[in-house]
């Protein structure tokens, strides 16, 4: 994927997590863990694309 869609998807997912945490649907540590995993996955996807584009 391109850089912009990856970043937008990660931001949208984090916004949903914040909304669910504020609404007491999920607890804060769980939301923080999932948010961290999403940021790491987005970073890995961007890093993978950067490696592929330089070949």
Automatic annotation (TrEMBL):
Keywords: Membrane, Transmembrane, Transmembrane helix. The keyword Transmembrane helix applies. The chain crosses the membrane at residues 30-47. This is Uncharacterized protein. It comes from Streptomyces scopuliridis RB72. The lineage of its organism: Bacteria, Bacillati, Actinomycetota, Actinomycetes, Kitasatosporales.
